[in-house]
């Protein structure tokens, strides 16, 4: 009975072909918002948000576009934060090199974790990634370079390319914004590439993809490593923004949080995870200063969203009448 | 019945010897010998649950055989992975129609063409890099009469056209051996005739092994028939021989014979 076909994720149902004009308008509006943001909001808040948005988008490359639910992405995000922080602080590396080390480290971790987990299906895949990331968490707790419970503190931002002083708030902001845009552009390119087409085919009907001669495990592993590397980019960036790297970023709660952000915004969409991250971070920011218990509130919001908007906020919008008249598709 | 039958038997491209598979003590397939020949249509028939789909899964390596040996064009493929077998030229369709539902007809076919064209790893190139495949895909789409639906999502096609698309996708790989699992199940009379004609045409240069319940189609287009019952071969030969076999008649009593 292995001829049975897996049902494609109901959430990622593209609508009518997207009009290029709408995409272009969205991109322009997004860039304008990025440029205006530091003048309207507290820059560190916006930068943190961008890091998490990139993290969620990287996660979505795996969940939304490959159909794999990883419960271990904290290892890549938090691991890269440690690598970048260590390189910048202890070795005195420039921020761009420290960031690249974070990306490379996360990719390496992703290759190891992915190689172990990739042949597991569904919930087993999620459990294996969770177990592996917990092992990494305990390794981080024990290894001297992470400074255990204290974490790596006062990470210098340094001089970008030896020229631009990232201690100037606006310089740092535009550096972060540029990395964010670059990260999203890379994800967009991967999704809309010949390789991305094979990923889509595998997600839609894995058995059929095999019968066409594709060794699906390889494509999944490649996507896993790419997603890990991009999550690492986000994590390393966050270490430079907040100037510390701690156990919080490698803990399993962080893996859960990125799932939450992605599902809230809408999996398999480009802007969904960005909005999801924004919502979660803004909510946490608001509630941190109030008496409400943060986790309970975010949990409730999550439940309501999952029940009401099964495609996520952006996915629902794209599927709605408004989205259709705009010519949006669910994977914009 | 066809002029091919008068010439010498063409070469065997796919063969199984003593093929068997157990599921937790239950023997679904046992001691199956099968020879599939070039440019011939070979039918695998039998009542529901006889093990036809399981035989397909074993031959294409989607399932690991418990016993026996499989040879594809002289190579022992008994221990190979299913995607490797597909790359060697043994391509199957599925009992449940297997298209990529949210891709268009053109995209479905291009997915099949991407691998032989070495356009499946490039994550840095735009989708327009695949446009070089449009010519070849267009020819296949045209040959199978799908041109009006070229940019329709596969999910929106009628059932019959989905099956035709599946065949077109399979043909895009130009396989040496085609395994079709109930390609006409659930089709109306006209679609059955169309698909039968397509299969007959594509079998001029390839070996075809198909599971089919519609016995008039089997009588019409198949050169050889193997009857499976409870996982074992009950009879084999051309359709007339098999249909005259009293054991086959008994096995099919109450069924759609
Ligand atoms: N993966 C499996 N696990 C357990 N039993 C199976 C499996 N696949 C098939 N079977 C059993 O093997 C028998 C043959 O099934 P199948 O090959 O689908 O028959 P057919 O295609 O001829 O209708 C059935 O009794 C079925 O229940
Ligand atoms: Mg069957």
Number of helices of chain B: 9
Helix content of chain B: 25-40%
State the helix count of chain A: 14
Mean pLDDT of chain A: 83
Class of secondary structure makeup of chain B: alpha/beta
Q: Care to count the β-strands of chain B?
A: 10
Question: What can you tell me about this protein's structure?
Answer:
The complex is a heterodimer of chains A (332) and B (257). Chain A has a two-stranded antiparallel ribbon with strand order 1-2. By secondary structure, chain A is mainly alpha-helical. In chain A, α2 crosses α10 (252-265). In chain A, 53% of the residues are buried. Chain A is built from 14 helices and 2 strands; from the N terminus they run αααααββααααααααα. In chain B, 32% of the residues lie in helices and 24% in strands. In chain B, β7, α6 and β8 form a beta-alpha-beta unit. Chain B is α/β, with parallel strands linked by helices and 257 residues long. In chain B, α3 (105-114) crosses α4 (134-143) and α3 (105-114) packs parallel to α5 (159-172). The relative contact order of chain B is 0.18. Chain B has 9 helices and 10 strands. Chain B has 2 domains: 3-99 and 157-253, P-loop containing nucleotide triphosphate hydrolases (Rossmann fold), CATH 3.40.50; 100-155. The two termini of chain B are 21 Å apart. The model of chain B has no long low-confidence stretch (mean pLDDT 88). The chains are: A mainly alpha (332), B alpha/beta (257). The interface between A and B is large, with 34 and 44 residues. Adenosine-5'-diphosphate (ADP) is lined by residues 23, 28, 46, 48-54 of chain B.
In short:
The complex is a heterodimer of chains A (332) and B (257). Chain A has 332 residues and is an all-alpha fold.
Characteristic key phrases:
heterodimer, A: 332 residues, mainly alpha, ABC transporter involved in vitamin B12 uptake, BtuC, 14 helices, B: 257 residues, alpha/beta, Rossmann fold, 6-stranded mixed sheet, 10 strands, 24% strand, binds adenosine-5'-diphosphate, binds magnesium ion
